[in-house]
Amino acid sequence: MDEDGVYDLIIPPGVSKSIIEDILREFDVEVVEREVKITYAIGEQDDVIRNVLAFRGSKELLLKVEEFIKQSLIDKIESLGSDRHKDRSTK
């Protein structure tokens, strides 16, 4: 956070382009690039710096964006499950 009350919410792996586009249409946030340190093995000294995408906005807004992401992923998983169920019932 900086002195203006602006926060970053890192976009988790697996969030599709369509969800990101929906968020940009629905919420007043911007997409930014952030450098983060990633550790691949616990206790090892193999920290790597990677650029990741993040949404930038106020804390209150990013909490809403986080919920939107969660619900969008839940909806997507549930629809995949129902599609598989349909495939089995038609065989």
Describe the structure.
By secondary structure, this protein is of the alpha+beta class. It has one domain (7-89). Helix content is 45%, strand content 25%. The protein has 2 helices and 3 strands, in the order βαββα. The chain has helices at 17-26, 59-89, and strands at 7-10, 30-38, 48-57. A 3-stranded antiparallel beta sheet has the order 1-3-2. The longest helix is centred in the C-terminal third of the chain and has 31 residues, at 59-89. The model has no long low-confidence stretch (mean pLDDT 86).
Strand order of the largest sheet: 1-3-2
Order of helices and strands: EHEEH
Going by helix content, strand content and strand pairing, the class is alpha+beta
Radius of gyration: 17 Å
What is the terminal-to-terminal distance? 54 Å
DSSP helix fraction: 40-55%
- Tell me how many strands there are: 3
Low-pLDDT windows of residues: none
Number of domains: 1
Q: Which keywords apply here?
A:
91 residues, three-stranded antiparallel sheet, alpha+beta
What's the helix and strand layout?
Layout: E1 7-10, H1 17-26, E2 30-38, E3 48-57, H2 59-89
Antiparallel strand pairs: 1-3, 2-3
